[in-house]
Amino acid sequence: MMATFHSLTSDQTLASIKFPSEATHCAILKGAPDQLLSRLNFVLMLEDGKLLTPGGKMSKAERESLKGHNDTLANQALRSLLVAICPLGSTELQALRKAATADERLEILLALPRLCFISLWGIYDPPRTTVPASVEECHR
Fold first, then answer.
1. How, if at all, do strands 42-47 and 13-14 pair?
2. DSSP letters of the chain?
3. What does the alpha-carbon distance between residue 127 and residue 3 come to, in Å, rounded to a whole number?
4. Can you spell out the DSSP letters for 38-72?
5. CA 73 to CA 17: how far, in whole Å?
6. CA pair distance 36, 38, nearest whole angstrom
7. Nearest alpha-carbon partner for 96 in 114, 117, 111
8. Closest by alpha carbon to 53, among 22, 91, 96?
9. Distance CA 106, CA 45 (A)
10. Which of 17, 46, 4, 27 is nearest to 114 (CA)?
């Protein structure tokens, strides 16, 4: 799992995403759906041509739909990645700055209640050319 941090403009936007007025930054997280999905509480909402985060509460049906789409990607032998976004205010930023390691920062982010679903991706990730020889060596 990986997180990146971004400063927001003075009108609390990043591209076409609008954040709460107290947000000064946002974190974008990407990782395995089985690790992230259970921690998401919101989905983006469209209002006046802008995507709002946090948007609406994620429903049980939406969560189940995402699980189903993830299963479909897996059945197609695709590696899946889920992308989420979280608005950050001064309190969250202060806690993140105090964290000594990336793992500690990640745990703080995953515990925040405003994690919002952005997208689910299926990626074709073929084995490296060295894999067949490595597997053969392991069998010997």
1. unpaired
2. -EEEEEEPPTTSEETTEE--TT--EEEEEEE-HHHHGGG--EEEEEETTEEEEEEEEPPHHHHHHHHHHHHHHHHTT-EEEEEEEEEE-HHHHHHHHH-SSHHHHHHHHHH-TT-EEEEEEEE--PPPTTHHHHHHHHH-
3. 25
4. GG--EEEEEETTEEEEEEEEPPHHHHHHHHHHHHH
5. 27
6. 6
7. 111
8. 22
9. 25
10. 27
With tokens 């689910």, the residue in question is: 120
For the whole prediction, is pTM greater than 0.85?
no
Task: Give me the residues paired with residue 67 across strands.
Answer: none
Total Cβ atoms within 10 A of residue 39: 16
The tens place of each residue's pLDDT in the chain, 140 residues long, gives 888 888 888 888 777 888 888 999 999 999 999 999 999 999 999 988 888 888 899 999 999 999 999 999 999 989 999 999 999 999 999 999 999 999 999 999 999 999 999 999 999 877 778 878 888 888 87
The residue type of 136 is E
CB 20 within 8 A of CB 47: no
Measured CA to CA, the distance from residue 125 to residue 78 in angstroms comes to: 7
